[in-house]
């Protein structure tokens, strides 16, 4: 019998740096998705929630870890634990609510009861039916392997051999979270927007680094002033309307000055330089928090030049307006998007209201920007399912192999106009994760080289 | 007052309520038609200048914590609009480059169970149920069902919406966007 072939044997071809091409099958193949759940979401440190979402003992928040769901719970001693939301008896969810406050979790199937620490503390019929032969200590809720916080952001991993969180995040990942934490005494705004897009999760991640799309996808948001409209001297043609008219694409001055950072394990940052952004907006008022001496020192010379779009591998995007967007894979062609929004406790009521209004009106399903994104991604995903359409490669050729990688403060960075380096870096790292190497090997293989 | 007069007064009150109910229903049916026909400029004119259009987030919570089910103004929401912000959304739809609605969605607003809960001088507090059915492209279908709590104000141009709070019957929103109005 012929050995069965696996799409994984073709990994080198699925993501080709040499050609700048991606095989579309990675966006719809069930085997790939199952391996992603096992080798990426089963091992990586994943963002769960912010500490301020669960301030009091007994507060909980149900968070996704890949296709699993965990309860993140504030303990009696103030620490935080997380465990799978599945009863050790028949598997029923021991908690049906998304968030709240409890003294313990009681399974509504047979009444097995678990403490805030996940330990089994009560079993109906323990004497009468189990004849006292059930050792409760052997059947707690299954805990995550490691849980830790970085500046209030709670992460966990199912892999006990994973490196510590700080090391996993590296300089690039930490910088991403610093760009929220440095804004003030940050707390989560009550309410996490959650919605479903019929797309593969990797399209949503790809888009984080994509500064090529706003001028077209979000053209209407520029037109009504949600985004600062570009000056007319950076127009570049190339697009033609359906009626044959030349569509002047209004590129921004910031589009010529982008900063890319690539880090171990697949973290990346890509977006405009802060100075270019301030020049385009014409004032620095929204960015005053950046100019505190301690913040400048924390971010460093290169880090303080970043205006946007850090991404913590595999699915946590830090926006430029104090939000974290988590992309939750549910199936090869379905992804939930969860928006966590933050505010400075010490801001005035007017400042808080203005920041919240920006967050509501930029992103989320009704956001003036994000309204337009979902259909691009769902249509792109749909085309990866066509028998012939999926043979057409996905292109990542912009700027490919044209730039040197520089190093400072532990960061590996690139200066370039709009490019696709961030996306390419993410897919290259994704390829290495799928080979399921040891942590040391994974780190070694995702150390940036001298060129990208 | 004779029993006959009392009966006539009572009938007048009933008739008054019927006429008011009819007026409010006709207002909503007119409004729904404007939305389904993409006549957004006329739709936005139905709101007062000080209007507040708000769609909170909804969360699955236990019965004993139902007071925490919806977010409140000042917290995260899907819509939190002044008249000016609503007008910007309308303006966006009219740019010709709002791709989420081009090709346009086909929508049908069904408004039912209209209850006039309060009458305070020139203002009515009205609750209604809605179903918004949307199809897009070849086979995309979205359905949103929920309740609207409106404050309708009498103006020289007729009724106007001074406040609209929209409570969706979904927690994790089952659609890729909210590019239509409720």
TrEMBL record, chain A:
Alphabetized Pfam families for the sequence: Rieske (PF00355), Ring_hydroxyl_A (PF00848)
GO MF entries: dioxygenase activity
Keyword list, A-Z: 2Fe-2S, Dioxygenase, Iron, Iron-sulfur, Metal-binding, NAD, Oxidoreductase
All copies of domain Rieske, residue ranges: 46-125
Domain of life of the organism encoding this protein: Bacteria
UniProt cross-references to PANTHER family, sorted A to Z: 3-PHENYLPROPIONATE_CINNAMIC ACID DIOXYGENASE SUBUNIT ALPHA (PTHR43756:SF1), CHOLINE MONOOXYGENASE, CHLOROPLASTIC (PTHR43756)
Family: Belongs to the bacterial ring-hydroxylating dioxygenase alpha subunit family.
Protein name (record): Aromatic ring-hydroxylating dioxygenase subunit alpha
Originating species: Pseudonocardia ailaonensis
